[in-house]
């Protein structure tokens, strides 16, 4: 299937899951994860109406943002940074992206705020939570959530929109659902203190349906749109 057909297929899966789980139509947005994929693949996705794209690697992502700003400004693509954050790369992210999903410490939030150009709207940010509690995975523990949210709420160039997680990759639906429900409950607790937050970034190609049942508002889909990734030429810094 072509990239356009894949997007149409994913969109119809999202629509039927919204119906199945009593979610309103349009409540789940699709972020197309284009890491390692060339501009032609992104152009194909835009031909199916896709406008939001997620990138994981700073250098590769910045090159794509610049390329599309220069050659396709009328598409008005919305770029989301969804990869691990290093403090020496925050400036490039603050200058090029509209969203960051992976804030996991105060220092990174402060740097993104300080480096966000005054000419751009505030950076839309999500706090990444380590939902499976594995030492190897990035993201904060639940106990650190409110402190980090409080700091972000004082930073004028960042707007806190919600939370994100990458749960352990497990095949069974019940475990996927349980992990996503946990993240959704953190989001609900956070929303009692910050009523404007509205984004729950969870669900990938292998666990999208469970994420929709649990209340996701943004699924991050790569493989099911663009096919398998080839990392041999990627800048994985
Ligand atoms: C790569 C990636 C995705 C997309 O994963 P697929 O399984 O290819 O859909 C989503 N979220 C993050 C954070 C990723 O790094």
TrEMBL record:
Residues 26-229 form the Alanine racemase N-terminal domain. Keywords: Pyridoxal phosphate. It comes from the Bacteria. InterPro entries: Ala_racemase_N, PLP-binding_barrel, PyrdxlP_homeostasis. The modification N6-(pyridoxal phosphate)lysine is found at residue 35. It holds the Pfam family Ala_racemase_N. Pyridoxal 5'-phosphate (PLP)-binding protein, which is involved in PLP homeostasis. Belongs to the pyridoxal phosphate-binding protein YggS/PROSC family. This is Pyridoxal phosphate homeostasis protein.
């Amino acid at each position: 299937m072509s990239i356009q057909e894949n997007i149409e297929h994913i969109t119809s899966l999202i629509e039927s899951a919204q119906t199945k789980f009593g979610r309103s139509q349009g409540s789940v947005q699709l972020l197309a994860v284009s890491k390692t994929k060339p501009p032609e693949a992104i152009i194909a996705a835009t031909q199916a109406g896709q406008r939001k794209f997620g990138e994981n690697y700073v250098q590769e992502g910045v090159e794509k943002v610049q390329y599309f700003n220069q050659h396709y400004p009328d598409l008005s693509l919305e770029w989301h940074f969804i990869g691990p954050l290093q403090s020496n790369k925050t400036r490039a992210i603050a200058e090029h992206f509209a969203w960051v999903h992976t804030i996991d410490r105060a220092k990174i939030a402060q740097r993104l705020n300080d480096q966000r150009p005054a000419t751009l709207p505030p950076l839309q940010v999500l706090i990444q939570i380590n939902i499976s509690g594995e030492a190897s995975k990035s993201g904060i523990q639940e106990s650190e959530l409110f402190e980090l949210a409080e700091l972000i709420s004082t930073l004028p160039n960042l707007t806190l929109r919600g939370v994100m997680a990458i749960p352990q990759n497990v095949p069974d639906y019940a475990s996927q659902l349980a992990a996503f429900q946990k993240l959704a409950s953190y989001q609900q607790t956070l929303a009692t203190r910050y009523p404007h937050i509205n984004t729950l970034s969870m669900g990938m190609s292998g666990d999208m349906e469970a994420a929709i049942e649990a209340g996701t508002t943004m699924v991050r889909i790569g493989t099911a749109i663009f096919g398998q990734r080839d990392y041999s030429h990627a800048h994985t810094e």
